[in-house]
Structure formats: structure tokens, C-alpha cells
Amino acid sequence: MRLVRFNDDRLGLLTDDGIVDVTDRLGLETNDPLREYATRDLDASEFSDADADYDRGEVRIESPVRRPGKVIAAPLNYENHVEEALADKDIVTQEWFTIEDKGYFLKAPSSVAGPDDGIEVPFSDRRVDHEIELAFVMGEDVKDIDSDDVWDAILGYTILLDVSVRGDQDRSNRKSYDTFTIIGPCVATPDEIGDPHDLEMELQLNGETRQQENTGEMIYSCADIVEYASIGATIEAGDVITTGTPEGVSAITGGDTIDAEIESVGSMVVDVTERDRSFEDVDVEKSQLNE
Fold it and tell me: What span, in angstroms and rounded, lies between the C-alpha atoms of 84 and 103?
């Protein structure tokens, strides 16, 4: 199945013919239907052969999960991006380490948006980069889980664009602006994927291929990341885990168009806009607490 959230709070199955709306069929009641679907351990597969209720072009595709409890991200997880980062002073500032060195990092749930929302570059004078990544949504709560047991806890796989402002600020700050975590277009269940570590992925910027890699080149597997992140911490159903980006990251600006595709998962087109604001104009004054 390919599960998709559309038109704000509807959950559907993405098929060759369009979208089958399963919201009412499954009795989903919240405005985050995929997260509810995961926590209630429901099964929409019985509706896979139903006639489509909507054409793809009739609806607005949202991020599969509206507000994940956590977005857990693996830093430098492809050898060729490690080399790229070390050679680029704009990338390397705080990002030269892998999970083994410094662990994972978190992105703000409020940064999550869907492909139809687009990316908004917050500052006109700071470099902002695209990063395509294979991500997945957890289907159950886990804690202190062994990597061999992770696979049964994954609901499905999706495409994630991890957008980053380059600079000296804390990583979670630079990666958590609104629209800096584009997820979509769907969540493909494991039976659709086969081996998640043998998928071709590609990102084109304005029609030019910038990133192209097979997920088999990851340093740490999907299961390794969950095992590490779950040490002493509960990863909940509906949380999003993203697995790092390969080489080829480059700057984006207003007016750009990103085409992102991962084999067996799907593809999405994302437009980029830009705010008319300079980072150099940001002036945060200290409170005079002791006066």
C-alpha cells in the first residue's frame, strides 16, 4: 500500500487510478490520520481494490504525518557525503561527525510540510541547501530495541527533503525553520519496497541531476539508526526517522524547482520561494534582567 494524507485531514491509498479515501471506512477521527492509523494498528489493505474517489490532481497532498512526535535524523551517513562535507567549509562547521561519533539529531516537528506546501527560504543572504533522504515512519512504540527486531516496527518508507541553512548556529536551529522538512508524497509499506537498502534515489534541481545514489551506500542501516536512537528513549508510532543524504547537496533559492524520486516509494515536485529578509538584519537584544 501507499498511504497518503490529503486535503488536510483525509487518509487515502494512492493507486494507479487515483486516491481511495479510507478515512471514514476506517473510522479515523483526528486531524493526523496516519499517526492515528499507526497507533490503532489498523489495516487499510482491504480497500486496495476499491474504485478511486479522487484523481491525484484533484487533491492537495500533505505530509503523511502532520506532526510527528519526533523527527530523528542521522548525520553524515554516506561516505561520499562525508568526503564532500570535509571539503566544503560551509557544510563542515558542525557536521563532520557520524552517529558513532556524536549520535543523532532532532528536527522540530513544526518544520514538517508536504510537497504541495513548498520550501520557503527564510533569509536572502544565507546559503540554504537541499538534501534528499530515505525516511520511514514507525508503526509501533519501541525502546531498547535490537536492530534485528526493528523491521517489524516500521510502518513504511517515504521521501524526505532535509533543508539546511549553513552557518555556525546549532544544527537543530539551522534545520528546523518552517518547511525545512518536506515529507511525501506517501508512505509505502514494506511489502512495496523489498530491500530498503537497494533503492535508487535522485534529486534534480531545475531539471539538472544534483544527487543520485543507491541507499545501499548507507554507513548505518535503517535498523542501526533505530537501535541507537531507542537506547533509553521511547520511539513512538508516527515518529519519523530519516537516514542521511549522499553527495551532491547544493544551494537553493526562490524560483527553484526540486524533483525528488526514490525507487518503489514515489516522486514529488517541490517549489522554492524566498522571504525578503536578511539574516544580517536580525537583531536580538539581551534583556536587562539585573537592572
Answer: 20
Phi (first) and psi of residue 47, to 5 degrees: -105, 10
Give dist(CA 38, CA 238) in Å, integer.
6
Between 282 and 70, name the one with better pLDDT: 70
The grid coordinates listed for 279 are: 539574516
Residue 101 near residue 190, CB atoms below 8 Å: no
Q: Whats the size of the chain, residue-wise?
A: 291
Which DSSP state fits 234?
A: P
Is residue 291's pLDDT more than 70? no
Tens of pLDDT, residue by residue over 145-173, are 999 999 999 999 999 999 999 888 888 99
Residue 81: which of 132, 34, 121 has the closest Cα? 132
pTM surpassing 0.85? yes
pLDDT in tens, 82-132: 566 655 655 554 444 556 666 789 999 999 999 999 999 999 889 999 999
Q: Cα 211 from chain centroid?
A: 16
Locate 282 and state its grid cell: 536580525
Q: What share of the chain is helix, strand, coil (3-state, %, to 5)?
A: 20, 30, 45
State phi, psi for 66 to the nearest 5 degrees. -65, -55
Alpha helices per DSSP H over the chain: 33-39, 79-87, 89-92, 99-102, 147-150, 171-174, 190-193, 222-229
Residue with cell 487499510: 44
Average pLDDT of the chain to the nearest whole number? 91
Domains of the chain: 2-47 (no CATH), 71-277 (3.90.850.10)
> Rounded CA gap, 251 and 257, in Å?
12
